[in-house]
Design brief:
Helix content: 40-55%
CATH architecture: Alpha-Beta Complex
Structural class: alpha/beta
Radius of gyration: 18 Å
Strand order of the largest sheet: 1-2-3-4-6-8-11
CATH class: Alpha Beta
Number of helices: 13
Number of strands: 11
Largest sheet: 7 strands, mixed
Distance between the termini: 56 Å
Amino acid sequence: MPTAERAVADKRFQIPHRRCMMAEVETEVKGRSIVVTINRPQVHNCVDAETAQLLFEAVQSFRRDRDLDVLVLTGAGDVSFCSGADLKHVESLIARPGADESGPMGISRVTDLDKPTIAAVNGYCLAGGLELACWCDFRVASHNASFGNPARRWGVPLIDGGTQRLPRIVGLGNALYLIETGIVIDAAGALRMGLVQEVVPDGQALPRALELAEAIVEYPRVSVKNDRRAVYEGLSPPLAEGIRLEAEVHRSSLADPEMAERLRQYVAGQRPLLPHPPACP
């Protein structure tokens, strides 16, 4: 990309180790990697329409920047990676311009990115947050991380790739176990299931993800990209086709009056109990 065009495209990502605040999403370039942080710790990093749009813009900037090779997605603070969609503002999230193309959570329907992505998961990784973690190529989790789909209680469907990516990552039975029951599992359970690839001490998920990113960027980039491409394009059916199917079948879910009633209960502070996984033997 010519120098002038690159400067216009995105000045924020040109200077290594420079931190850039983008309201509810924070970005930081470290060498040839970029850290994208969901920055709403006061609400467990749940995603509203503004956050979704900023996530999309961050990924698009990463896509354009030829000097950046790996994206690390994480959440601000130690309590939550992302607790999902902001259910108090779910209508605006779905109505966000471009949501049909990029996904309500901002990036879940972006299936043509040609660079590696890593999720650094700290704390709660739930519902739409789980879908964002699954959007990444692989996941590094801290000991305090937990994963699940408790939004099952409110009738909120997985429309950010969860029905397509989870079975590809953990297999059919494990995926349906998480999707149908609403059970929340700990990091050890996620590791056994293959949902995460490494579990590290609390506070070390991001440093470890960056360590892995640093290793990846040192490899010849063409072979890394082509191996990654062959993996994704070799899946059947194609992920993009599955994502379209997910969006289509859940149109009736989003119009379901019972979901609207359950969301009113959520706003009123009612919390139905979820089943718990058994203790490890």
